[in-house]
Amino acid sequence: MRVLPDILPAETSGLSECFDRLAAQKRESRPLSTYRLQFNKDFRFDDARALVGYLRELGISHVYSSPILKARPGSTHGYDISDHNLLNPEIGTEEEFRAFVDELKDHGMGQILDVVPNHMGVGQGDNPWWQDVLENGQTAKHADFFDIDWDPLKVELRDKVLLPILANQYGEELEAGRIRLTFNYERGRFEIEYYDKVFPVDPQTIPMIFDPSLRSGSTNGGSALGAFKHLLHELQALPPNTERRAEAAKQRQQAAPVLLDRLAEIIRRFPEVRQAMEQALTRITGKPGYAQSFDALHRLLEAQAYRLAHWRVSAEEINYRRFFDINDLVGLCMENPKVFAATHKLLRRLLAEGSVSGIRIDHCDGLLNPRQHLVRVQMLYAASQCCGPVPVPPLAENGIEAAVQSAFGQHDWMNQQAPLYAVVEKILEPGEEFPTEWPVDGTSGYDFANLVNGIFIQSENRQAFTTIYERFIGERLDFDSLLYNSKKLIMNTALSSEVNVLTHVLDIISGKDRRARDFTRKALRDAIRETIACFPVYRTYIDERGEVNERDAAYVNRAIAIAKRRNAGTAAAVFDFLRDNLLLKNTNGGGDAEYALKLHFTLKFQQLTGPVMAKGLEDTVCYVYNRFISVNEVGGSPKLFGHPVEEFHRGNLIRAERWPFSLLATSTHDTKRSEDVRARLDVLSEMPKVWSTQVGRWRRLNEAKKVTLADGRQAPDRNEEYLLYQTLVGSWPLAMATEEERERYIERITQYMVKAMHEAKINLSWINPDPEYVEAVSKFIRQTLTPGVPGKNSFLRSMGEFLPAVQFFGAINSLSQTLLKITSPGVPDIYQGTEMWDFSLVDPDNRRPVDFNVRREALNNVKERMAQDLPALAQELLQNYQDGRVKLFTTLLAMEFRSRNPELFRASRYLPLTVTGEKSEHVAAFAREYQSPLDGEHKVAIVAVPRFAHTLMKGRIAAPIGETWGDTEIQVTPNTPNLLENIFTGEAIEVSNRRTIACQDVFKVFPLGLLASR
What we know:
1014 residues; alpha/beta
């Protein structure tokens, strides 16, 4: 690892050695495999500790933990963090966390931690930083921690934070008595309450609560009321919450807490003061039916640094950046070094202690400057290892801490050089490449999930499925138009405020340009909106330096060109003006206010394109364009319909070269469908005629169960019905023997369809609910899935006849994907429970509790049987695939092989293998090769899996599937030994004189091949 010696002071001469140690540590500590655990109040550190032995036996090297910091009470995911420097008490204490970490270390394992830098949860009143801002406005210590616009377009909101939390209009809620002023005796503070939400009262406005007689007159004398009056005068004399001068803010920060504590003490101690306070609360509370009685409370609320508002105004007027459109997830100004330092204290300690050996960074696209943040994370890690768990005082210019930061700040770190193992949640559009300048090890794996799934979809049937879909729903849907219009819908509704702010800034810029000052605000807004709607990727990454690389320039130019073409009636000059500003053209390169404003516009534009893409594609179109829902996935595209195996190899080769330690995921907490659901749906791509007949029949059988509403709509509509049938095929349990199991499944499907309909925004949405429509669809689902009179539900009988072949060959697909994930370049990740069958749908369905007892017992059973007769066990597990042990068996043996041969998967070559013969399209195969630098010995592993097994077997369920391969052979590499062993069966596989292996030998007993030197 290179260190620049000229920037290191003499007293830190050991720093170079420290950096070298970090490089060596990273080589040894990078994960070989990960297992994702979802922590919440029902799955705590102690539960995870009890699993460590099981995970080690499974071959896992690192637990990959969901966020563990203090979050909203009851959070099922942990992404709504309220305090970055406390562990979540709902999932365990510090001692329980340390016991979990110690257990990991005892088993030679590490922990990858999911961290959330973009936003914080603020909705429950338990975020101290946010409460500070609400209480003190711009004088708050944390006023610059959150991405708040204190000078918004709406004049009435100047110096205020809009809080759109009211169920109805503000005046209606106020005069109904639902907004109340209270005194919290435990905390000793006045508070505004609205149902379960609590807001602070600005100390400087507390005197407004009391009768004028208490605010005037003499404050002399030794009486309690006299002291109380004096205290009110001191509170009133505090600088107002709109004060922006640093010295005034500091004065208030020092004085206000002392005054509030004195106020609490005097109220508690003296009955006459307490009585005066309670009388004031009674007076200000108001009486429903008498509007004027709420005037005093209204005046108090108007004096606060926040404004309570109806929830519907958030889209147009909200003046803080959110995580997408979620009002109680507020964006952090992580580009502020002070914010970074304050939010990473605990993480630094965990890194220094070795409790965390790597991180996954959530939603990096939400950050103003992702690369800057990633560099700082690497600097933080270096400092934690070289300097300890806390910054070394004093932070002198020549101190060791400064030397660490200087060294890392000036080094252009690439992914292989960065000392901390880190991956980021980055969603890549098809064809988009991961930014090579980021100092991380890759992505969290959505790209691989779509890459591997695509080779099990029979691309040649794309048009057939398009025809089936359009005939079923009775209309033609163009994906590109759907996405374009969905993104515009999002910008016109949920994110319209953000568009308005950008328009305002661009309007100011145009006003200073004599060639652009005649562009109207509407023209500028339309240009911004149209360009974002046409943006081909989530975002670009121009940073504060103002440097624009070719990649980002190409994306901007492409978006502008498409927007121009879609808007032929709009003057091209306004799009050209927008383009030039986004690419920072016609500027002096920095230094003046005009350049700063243009740079600010570009940076904020980039922060908006990502949420618009996510809401438009993932949360809208993926629930509307239902042609083939296996591809409607995060990081995928409903427009695609599979790809050739060569595309899979190409992706693996790029990853092996550039990102060899990127995570490989197939199921995550965010996937729309689990890997097993997608693998089963992929079978449908092989049978367009059968599927067309089947789905048409189901529609006829269930037509009478639909409900016609008063407005003439049928519920569900045809598109929703088509989605439902695919969802049922993909998720239908392999065993549903009891009425209780059926009821649980009906409830799961109903919840999923309700969410899908809201996200689609066709018949209803989250902001325009339609309970009557939801009830009608729920009734349809229940009638469809309830047996009723024995033998009378023809749909269930038809589904029962159709499913067995799809389920079996879906299982074959899933086993194949599992092996490919474990052996491809990268770090395989197993989402909790998916080592056995898991047919979960989108969250919250995929966050249900996992029965680890079943998995432990299955693992013990499989390991015990493996030592006896491996081929017989492999065949038995395949024949009884429904119980899920066959997937556990596949995972276990592949992971064990990976653990025994780490160099084959950390430093090896990836070699696509040619397949010849009549069934060649039905095989994907590659080799992993490693040559020892010590003795030159070669290690080789051959991986081979079947594709399109339903077509191969002509729909006939048979285990194994090794009898139909004919002359199909796999060409092996020159370094492959002449005798190989299939680790799943123990069978010997001979390499022919032609340097090939026969598929009928590879798949004779088990439908997977992982072949190594015997």
